[in-house]
Amino acid sequence: MNTDTWLVVPLYNEGTVVGDVIRQARETFCKIVCVDDGSSDDSAEVAAAAGAVLVTHPVNLGQGAALQTGITYALGDPEAGYIVTFDSDGQHRTEDAERMVQRLRMEDLDVILGSRFLGSATDAGLLKRLVLRAAVMFERMTTHLKVTDTHNGLRAFSRAGAEAIQIRQNRMAHGSEFLQEISRNHLRYDEEPVHIIYTDYSRAKGQSLWNSVNILDELFLNR
């Protein structure tokens, strides 16, 4: 059991699945903080009943804001050595998160970024892969980071890495801001192949091509 690691889970209207996500994750990570970002369903109650610590935004501020709130909360634990950002809709696997934390324990790194495009573990459709590849090219030019996946929500940080990062982009462009912060603070980083589970539920919740296009729009509008 990882007692020195916090999972930070942004939460917005995922009441039908978040309980299973938290219960499964707690088999490996006993410290989980869910930041309920103004949900209108029973997400908060379900997450708390499953064993997560609950922090609440009274109104919806966006995933970037929820992640920053969760990271700040986790850093308030003096025993926290590692922090992992983890989705609430069942797309991420705890075995991938655990492997990323183990790398931070063993290697001289501040950040491990999950990548769908290392190895062969991706179920994304062709058009979505093309859009995400375009985002990768853009980020490589602007941050000079050699990354293969710029908007993967599965990330692991050492305490020092998490303390160095400040996310101010509330919406989907926060993924780009994580990379900017890694570059700006000269954090030591690497990527880890991870498997993203694309279910009918996650696709219906917005994990679509148009969501990827919106990411690109926010990237260009904010530069």
Overall average pLDDT: 85
The helicity comes to: 40-55%
Query: Cα-atom Rg, whole angstroms?
Result: 16 Å
The end-to-end distance, rounded to whole angstroms, is: 42 Å
Helix count, per DSSP? 9
Record field, number of beta strands: 7
| Order of helical and strand elements | EHEHEHEHEHEHHEHH
In a few lines, what is going on in this structure?
The chain has nine helices and seven strands, in the order βαβαβαβαβαβααβαα. With 223 residues, the chain is of the alpha/beta class.
Question: What does the secondary structure layout of this molecule look like, with pairings?
Answer:
Elements: E1 5-11, H1 18-25, E2 31-37, H2 43-49, E3 53-57, H3 63-75, E4 82-85, H4 94-106, E5 111-115, H5 126-143, E6 155-158, H6 159-164, H7 174-184, E7 189-193, H8 200-204, H9 209-221
Parallel strand pairs: 1-2, 1-4, 2-3, 5-7
Antiparallel strand pairs: 4-6, 5-6
Question: Overview of this structure, please?
Answer:
The structure is a single chain. The chain is of the alpha/beta class. The protein has nine helices and seven strands, in the order βαβαβαβαβαβααβαα. The protein has helices at 18-25, 43-49, 63-75, 94-106, 126-143, 159-164, 174-184, 200-204, 209-221; strands at residues 5-11, 31-37, 53-57, 82-85, 111-115, 155-158, 189-193. Strands 3-2-1-4-6-5-7 form a seven-stranded mixed sheet, with helices on both faces. The longest helix is centred in the middle third of the chain and has 18 residues, at 126-143. The mean pLDDT is 85.
